[in-house]
Amino acid sequence: MNILHICAGWQKWNGAANIARMIMDEQRREGHEVSSATWAKVRELRAVDEVWIHCGWLPCLWWAAVVCFLTQRRRGAECAERILKWMPEACYDPVRLKYHGWKKWLAGPIERWCLRRCDRIVATCEAEKGWIEKYLGKRCPVVEVTDIKRFFDFSRVDGLTQRRRGAECAEMFSRVEHVERVEGRGFDSRVERVDRVEDGGSIGRVERVEKGVVHLLYLGRRHPLKGVGYLEEAVRQLNSNLVNPVNPVQNSSTRSTCSTRLNKENSSLHVSTRSTRLKIVSSAFGEELEKVWDWCDVLVLPTLSDNFGLVIAEALERGKRVITTDGAPAWGEELTGLTGFTGLYSGYGGRLVYLKGYRDGTDEERVELLKKAIDMLKHDGNMV
Q1: Using CA atoms, how far apart are residues 266 and 270, in angstroms rounded to an integer?
Q2: 144-156, pLDDT tens digit by residue?
Q3: Are 67 and 44 in contact (CB under 8 A)?
Q4: CATH of domain 2-151
Q5: Which residues lie below 8 Å from residue 155, measured CB to CB, with a gap of 6+?
């Protein structure tokens, strides 16, 4: 079978394109002839047996759908019926539609016309299937759910993570640390300083492993729907709650009183003696990306709306811990509730912490859920 995949862009940072590449590789292994394009020519669309369209809201995708629909009217031995499949990548998530209201009202009629003439619409999870069916109404084509997780092996444990577990983790810091914001393709560009920063955001900084410090990574673009601001606020609040060591005193009874008071405060506040560092990286590739993963203990994706969440799959495949939310519903299946932690659920051998109620919560509730998840992992005895 001759299969053509259409995507608005094939850049490395494009999640829809990366999912398309994995599907294409699988199809090639099955013996199909596979090609890709952005603006496909009419003769290319006529020559193939199956067309896949990835993501939505863009004219180059509408063009492919219209041409496929019109040419499919032809019948005869020289022209086989074409199969048109569309993979919207969570474009019809109600949260995303509300945020991008202009797309719903301006581009919505065009998109509906195209989607309703597909042979199949492909969703990445049951939640996305429900969004599509509700958006298209009674004239919705058949929506099938494909398992993107089949492309990943979540059984591997990262070698670096294994080496960092052990006695060195017993030494904990009790100082306020910092949040680093790194943008661009490298790490020696702009750094946003919060509280205090001991040094810059160089690659050497990423290579250094600090004892007793939990390293959180957000890997992706800064966008309101990604919830990065909630994560930054959660880290600030956690670090500001750290209790500074009590200065030594001469009187043993006074020392005992201070120690008792400090223990009570720690108990009531559930304060961790581990400090937290957060690094926000908008894009990194090759060796730079590997150094970011080596630095990371926990990947955090505090999203309000995401398609599949490829970065979650990559983190789990590398053996990293992950915190994500019900804004990425593809990861909300087959989870178990965590006793004593309302709203927190666990999966994938305890490596994934999933926050329910985050997506529809208030700003304060989202920050509190993130703080609870981060603090829980910091108290975990197996935490790196």
Answers
A1: 6
A2: 999 999 999 887 6
A3: no
A4: 3.40.50.2000
A5: none
pLDDT digits (tens, 9 = 90+) for 89-114: 999 999 999 999 998 899 999 999 99
Q: Can you give 212-231 as a three-state secondary structure string?
A: CEEEEEEECCCCHHHCHHHH
Per the CB < 8 A criterion, the answer to whether 375 and 234 are in contact is no
Instruction: Report CA dihedral (278, 280, 283, 284) to the nearest 10 degrees.
Output: -20
> Which residue intervals of the chain bear CATH 3.40.50.2000?
2-151
Which residues have a Cβ under 8 Å from the Cβ of 3 and sit 6 or more positions away? 24, 27, 32, 33, 34, 35, 48, 49, 50, 51, 52
Alpha helices in 100-215 (DSSP H): 101-102, 108-115, 126-136, 159-164, 203-207
Is-contact 299 384, C-beta < 8 A?
A: no
Q: What is the pTM of this model?
A: 0.78
What pLDDT sits at residue 242?
A: 66
Q: Mean pLDDT over all residues of the chain?
A: 78
CATH fold label, 159-245+253-379: Rossmann fold (3.40.50)
* Token representation of residue 360: 């529809």
Half-sphere exposure in the Cβ direction for 326 (13 Å, CA): 15
Among 217, 375, 365, 371, smallest CA distance to 304 is for 365
